[in-house]
Amino acid sequence: MDDERLPPLPAAVAEIRLAVRASLATVAAEAAATATPAPAVIVALSGGADSLALAAATAFEAPKLGIRAIAVVVDHGLQYASMDVAATAARQAEGLGLEARVVRVDVGAGAGPEASARDARYRALEAEADAFGASAILLGHTLDDQAETVLLGLARGSGAASLQGMAPASGRRIRPMLSVRRATTAAFCAASGLTPWQDPHNLEDRFARVRVRERVLPVLEAELGPGVAEALARTAEQLREDNEAFEQMINETIEDIVEHAEAGIAISVPALAANPPAIRQRVIRHVVASEFGVSLSRTHTLEIARLVTDWRGQGPLHVPGCEVRRVGSRIEFTAS
Where do the structural domains in the chain lie, given as residue ranges? Predict the structure, then answer.
């Protein structure tokens, strides 16, 4: 009798399908809990190896869970023949069995080309998710992307919030492959007969992320030994756990020490002073962010904290979004 056993599944294909299956199972479970009849997900597809592997794994796993999957290709219009690249990616998605849409966006001149393109892309993906009633947007970020994000945050001195990197899930945005190496997505595509697009921006060292990817991380691996990327990703995970605990403490603290003032909001000085600096400063940042929609720098945060810990009668502080002054035993925040 002929051996009719199927050939073994390539390890890269198995690893990514398993990661995607876990994320989609969560989507399916949430849909069942809310009696959603036909859950849908958006797959963010650029045509690169990471997003193409994500799309292929989703195309394989989603039907088994009764999930409708739509690939959305965002054309930023920043490169020559970007329309052709987007159209090719959409055809690949359709060849995998996914529905596919190409969305053209205008990238403004905001905080730089990378940040502006990212903001425009996320707005487009959220709009498509709304249009299709999708409960999740699947993004193709990998462990390598996470390591680069943490290292960039460390270099910029952005604090613990930045060093947390990207969350596996944030609102509708889900990153199933944060534990998967970039080399695995390339191996997945090779094993599946898929030809990914090679983004020329990934070779331009004018971008800090490219320099980290092509120069900094390889040097760290060479000098410190293998496993640096995994260690950075673990650091991000540990800091997210710490931050979740901090956030719970902050919320409980704010309920006790924050009150509404005539033209804004106020915090009790003795209550703030009784907390350690980490809690005190987080309360200040949280209050300003929630009340005035502004993220304070560390410099501004420390200046406000001095109204509690080093009070010498100094006048009001003018920080982004608000004015802060000490009035008796309270710190008052009013819109500027």
Answer: 11-235, 262-335
pLDDT at 2 exceeding the cut of 60: no
Neighbour count for residue 15 (Cβ, 10 Å): 21
Round to whole Å and give the CA distance between 106 and 115: 13
The domain over range 11-235 is classified in CATH as 3.40.50.620: yes
**229-173-69-126 Cα dihedral, nearest 10 degrees:** -130
Q: Provide the β-strand partners of residue 323.
A: 318, 334
Query: Tokens 């410190």 appear where?
Result: 224
The pTM of the whole model exceeds 0.85? no
Express each pLDDT in 252-306 by its tens digit. Answer: 888 888 888 777 899 999 999 999 998 899 899 988 998 898 888 889 999 999 9
Q: Which residue has the tokens 């399916």?
A: 28
Q: Report the relative pairing of strands 264-268 and 330-335 from DSSP bridges.
A: antiparallel
Beta sheet of 330-335, edge-to-edge order: 258-261, 264-268, 330-335, 322-327, 317-319
Specify the fold of 262-335. 3.30.465
